[in-house]
Amino acid sequence: LAQWLQLQDEMRCFFMIADWHALTNNYRDTSSIPENIRQQTLDWLAVGLDPSKATIFVQSAVKEHAELSLLLGMFTPVGLMERCTGWKEANERGDDVLRTYGFLGYPCLQTADILMYQAHVVPVGKDQQEHVEKAQDIAQKVNFLYGTETNPVFRVPEWQLGTAPMLPGNDGRKMSKSYDNCIYITEDAATVEQKVSIMVTDPARVRRHDPGNPEKCSVWEYHKVFTDKKHHDWIWKGCTTAGIGCRDCKKLLAERSTRSSSPCASDARRWRRQTSTGGVCWRPATRTRACARGNDDPCARSSTSTRSNHHDRHRGGDADRRRPQLPVQPDGGRLL
Ligand code: SF4
Questions:
Q1: Rounded to an integer, what distance in angstroms lies between the CA atom of residue 65 and that of residue 270?
Q2: Using an 8 Å Cβ cutoff, are 319 and 336 in contact?
Q3: Dihedral sign (CA 294, 300, 303, 304)
């Protein structure tokens, strides 16, 4: 989110709430999706995403994402999707619930989310980098089949990694709503403290006097983000010599993370009182659809780019930023 804030001031941005993606692994119980859309919108507003600078929209309000995903599916080898980490992990776990066409194909839908807006850059966490690589592969294939060197169908996007490391959930696994192991930006101090208190630590520190290794501890990963360098030295020395206990270490983390997030929590409360989140995330769909349909130049700064967070790097109106011509069918219609 820190890099999104910077990007919204530098280029035209689309920030997308990926409710269709939520269906790919939560299709059996969809009851929480409306509230999650609302909460995600509030979180984004609370950290400072500004609807007057960037377009915040809900994926399912722009049906063109489904249409483009269907068409891209024609060019997408099954093997490319099967090599995605999420699919491989679900198979290794023997998770039959996720052995669906939708879950296998979600990187294709993500590719549509990105290519739709001719995005130059997609700000992602490390775990999402492979999906931008898939988008690059698919874009290049479509360009090879239907474009020319000077007039490609799709811009081949780049990824941009944030400086923060990927944080684990408080149970040490990948952070995920479905594992119920997340610490949320807008949570109050008592909840953050309780969640931090049960975080998984270095298993070697069974007793207070056992020395540990911060590199084997998820609490340390959080300290890297929320705590200053002076305290890093204190934690590292205290942990490796058993000079501090995990409880001391977690107490400091709870304080520091709450200090960072409490302005967000109070902003979220203010937004909740003042704003209908629907007006923020559903209403821009008309304008976003115009971009998706090619009736509005997604690169023009006058309107504004995406979980799939796609950004156009330029602001001006040079030829490079003009939407490429799509292949034309014999009857004059567009193939894509
Ligand atoms: S002292 Fe801190 S870094 Fe070391 S194992 Fe305990 S919680 Fe982790």
A1: 32
A2: no
A3: positive
Pairing of strands 121-124, 12-17: unpaired
The residue type at 288: T
Question: Strand 309-312 and strand 12-17: pairing?
Answer: antiparallel
Name the pTM for this structure: 0.76
CA distance 178 to 180: 5
Q: Which residues contact 329 (CB under 8 A, 6 or more apart)?
A: 335
Q: pLDDT tens across 56-66, in order?
A: 999 999 999 99
Q: For residues 49 and 4, is the Cβ–Cβ distance under 8 A?
A: yes
Q: Is 124 in the pocket of ligand 1 (CB under 6 A)?
A: no
Residue 18 CB less than 6 A away from ligand 1 = no
Distance, CA of 323 to chain centre? 25
Q: Is 239 in the pocket of ligand 1 (CB under 6 A)?
A: yes
Express each pLDDT in 247-275 by its tens digit: 999 999 999 998 888 777 777 777 777 66
